[in-house]
Amino acid sequence: MPSAQIRKIIHVDMDAFFASVEERDNPELRGKPVAVGYDGKRGVVATANYEARKYGVHSAMATSTAKRLCPQLIFIPSRIDVYRAISNQIREVFYEFTDLVEPASLDEAYLDVTVNKKNMRSAWTVAQNIRDKIFAQTGLTASAGVSYNKFLAKSASDLNKPNGQYLISPAEGDAFIAHLPIAKFHGIGPATTEKMKSLGIHTGADLRAWTLSDLQSNFGKLGGWYYRIARGEDDRPVEPHRIRKSVSSETTFVNDTTDLEYVLESLDTLANEVWLWAETAEKYGRTVTVKIKWSDFEQSTRSRTEKTPIDDKQLFRQISAELLRSVFPFPQGIRLIGVGVSNFDIIKKKTSAQISLNI
Ligand code: TTP
Ligand code: MG
Predict the structure, then answer these.
(1) Which of 50, 152, 320, 351 could form a disulfide with 147 if both were Cys (CB 3.0 to 4.6 A apart)?
(2) Between the CA atoms of 203, 208, 211 and 212, what dihedral angle is there, to the nearest 10 degrees?
């Protein structure tokens, strides 16, 4: 394949995924504002249906805020196993069209359909077929973005949501990006948006006016990425077997705490979860990171990197605990604690036969 060939990339994303599943399985909910999530102290909204979004309710919003905005909001607890099963169903649909599928989360994936199993020339038609098939098999709607790279396909999939699709052709890429507000750039979060605004960068066209070296001096490594996406350039391949680079687990306390023993105990539970994953995947990392979110929502992280992969559970637990102790006495209450492992080297433990008996 000549390297200059223009790729055909589709980004598929289910509409109000968790909430749509709940409406599908309980028709009484239809037409009413619904949020999926934990309805308790410190609960957050995982997602809201489009009815609830009219009131301003959205993902990651505190339950209490959501109820204030929409007092008649119906809360449904998550059924993650059901969502996972549907996620597998939609992946099977993708594989009917191409093996170049990169799942990005339970409800979204990138597909490279430049060459596809149905020999369809039009990526637009492939997207339409995929969405029809998803609906036929799950009763749920999806939206899609069709373009010549991942960045633009991802941006496009939001433009005709719900139950629609949008094409950004090579001829349209430049103009699309020029008009795109910075806050809408996928991967540019609220903090960077604010920084860009303070530098006078409000749209893609503003971003494009900056030189590579000026962007690098203001944004470090990411400067180069911003330079390229301002020009619609994104050569990241669709990676069907993307390797997971880290795994972590975290928990938010019901009440902020400064109790060391209590936090250590919680951390140990999380470390056990992370360890179970490492053993199951037979992936052992060299870096352990502990994350702490304080009462004022500021975040601290502490990490330690060993010379060799940490393949011993006690050692992993011990490093996690030491990292936490390094911030004791706590300057303020702890709201959330997390622990993760990264920098994987894939090794087989000598005792893997024993381990497989335990999991
Ligand atoms: P999204 O695709 O971001 O959202 P969505 O499918 O609910 O809505 P949209 O129509 O805008 O695509 O996320 C997919 C699912 O992931 C979502 O249904 C619930 C879950 N999720 C969370 O649990 N927490 C979050 O903060 C987000 C963003 C999503
Ligand atoms: Mg979605």
Answers:
(1) 152
(2) 100
Question: Strand 246-257 relative to strand 74-76: parallel, antiparallel, unpaired?
Answer: unpaired
Of 34, 6, 40, 10, nearest to 20 by C-alpha is 34
Residue 102's closest CA among 4, 209, 241? 241
113-138 confidence digits (pLDDT tens):
999 999 999 999 999 999 999 999 99
**Which ligand sits nearest to residue 86's alpha carbon?**
1
Rounded to whole angstroms, how far apart are CA atoms 68 and 50?
A: 17
- Cα of 134 vs centre of ligand 1, distance in Å, is 17
Q: What is the number of the ligand closest to the CA of 16?
A: 1
Q: What is the pLDDT of residues 140-165, one digit of tens each?
A: 999 999 999 999 999 999 999 999 99
292: Cα separation from own chain's centroid: 20
pLDDT in tens, 175-224: 999 999 999 999 887 778 988 999 999 999 999 999 999 999 998 888 99
Q: What is the pLDDT of residue 59?
A: 87
Residues with CB under 5 A from ligand 2 (ion): 13-14, 17, 107
Could you tell me if the CB of 59 is within 6 A of ligand 1?
Answer: yes
